[in-house]
């Protein structure tokens, strides 16, 4: 048999490594996190924004940096049929800033925006980390005031409280203004350059490309040098100091506790002032639940106008691991039809109930006992029993699934009767 006539090999049905499927409790937890985020962001007056899953590769290369691991090792990049280099988004901020420039959203500034959805990074899958993962994202674009930083942090703080996530500490730092950051960077380069022989290989690479990132090294051999590194406070301009004081005062007035984390950094030059992370004590090495900061220089670096901005992102999968058990979705009504005529009539009854805002479903097979068992398993508050007698009388037998009490209710008054008890 020639190769051309051999049957094609059947691909085993399995997910791509690092991808995941949700059903049952996991799906409920996912929706609980997203639903709570929607509710809390609404209370703060944030608006939903949508950006594409795919962008030109340059959008991320310019914003994340050509030398970062995300760009050099982790992005899903491919050429389309026109030879354009495209990338599945590894984060949200770059795409939102691209849209701010290309769609002329400057006219709407300041913008308070939220979004959520899938992101993609090619990295080693582990607990709480996937190649297709999901994030919540919040941004304030076009506001240079410290109050915007406080507002965003307050949004994250309330979200965690509403989700029932405990054991979380807010770590806070400042990266200063451009003048402060520049002087501090020079001092750090001088400090680490004088001790190159004691640095890890990764920190030596960062010394050349992104020296501030040495401060968040995970290598034990780097810790003594990092602990002895000069503090940004020694180089703080009066303006940068005042900004940081305003952020801290705003958090204190909001009742939000925080710890100063002098080694918390963001590596790129477009980051300014506030940097923060909500860190959990229950996730091991994957400790950061929500992280963000001010990126006043990013939109300008992408070719747009100078635009102050601040934002944060939080991993949905990590929040799913930490949040309290979501309440089960309660079913208002289970319709239990008995007989062919009742099966047909149930369609109209279900349509009427759902149009009135009640959740309703029916079992499609089995005797009455089986269907009532299914209603109980679904958590229905009421079971509506519909048979030939009920059709003839123009009513429905309604059983309270908690008390077991059963009574006849007319079809004309059924919706009002149910909604009064919902």
UniProtKB/TrEMBL annotation:
Domain Aminoacyl-transfer RNA synthetases class-II family profile: 33-337
Domain of life (superkingdom): Bacteria
PROSITE patterns to which the protein is assigned, alphabetical: AA_TRNA_LIGASE_II
Binding site for L-histidine: 91-93, 121, 135, 139, 266, 270-271
EC category name: ligase
Entry-linked InterPro entries: aa-tRNA-synth_II, aa-tRNA-synth_II/BPL/LPL, Anticodon-bd, Anticodon-bd_dom_sf, His-tRNA-ligase, HisRS-like_core, HisRS/HisZ, HisRS_anticodon
Subcellular location per the Swiss-Prot or TrEMBL entry: Cytoplasm
This enzyme's EC code(s): 6.1.1.21
Protein name: Histidine--tRNA ligase
Gene designation: hisS
